[in-house]
Amino acid sequence: MSQYKIAVVVGSLRKESFNRKLAVAIAKLAPSEFTFKQIEIGDLPLYNQDDDENQAPSVKRLKTEISEANGVVFVTPEYNRAMPGVLKNAIDHASRPYGKNAWEGKPAGVLGVSIGAIGTALAQQHLRNSLAYLDMPTMGQPEVFLQAKEGLFNEDGSIAANSQAFLQGWVDRYVAWVKKHSN
Fold first, then answer.
1. What's the Cα-to-Cα distance from 133 to each of 91, 142, 174, rounded to whole Å?
2. Among positive and negative, which fits the CA dihedral 103, 176, 126, 116?
3. 72 and 103 Cβ atoms separated by less than 8 Å
4. Model confidence, pTM
5. Which residues contact 67 (CB under 8 A, 6 or more apart)?
6. Contact, 139 vs 93, CB < 8 A?
7. What residues have CB less than 8 Å from 79, skipping those under 6 apart?
8. pLDDT above 90 covers what percent of the chain?
9. Which of 7, 12, 97, 146 could form a disulfide with 17 if both were Cys (CB 3.0 to 4.6 A apart)?
């Protein structure tokens, strides 16, 4: 049996982030041959092309963790109808310098949760535009635009019964996506 390592990039730095909770909860829905590891992005400097030839240790760590992963899950909030700047910063760092794109070919999954009624639909579309350019095969369906409201999570942080089947379906599809697109 193969082991699959999935890098999880959460687009929020907030400790009590709904998206961080979602990232932890979906990892528990994956089969045992899949391990999900959240990747730190809050310690990255702001991207500056002048630093491409002398990247910071945190950038080198990010690129190594992405390179070693079999796939990447992005769990993002929506800020001002777009992906958060911290997430875009991480994407830019790991794709540079030009020709050394750590994201290339990594099967991606995108989901998110927000207090708004449309969840993170626009942030996800914004993110998907970048992922297409980075040559990441990105799972299109099912889309997950969750609204954070009472009853989404159980007290232990797991997904509540009313959303569990839907999110289990997303995880099952993502698992198949990674297996189909892994090198």
1. 11, 21, 20
2. negative
3. yes
4. 0.96
5. 102
6. no
7. 85, 123
8. 87
9. 12
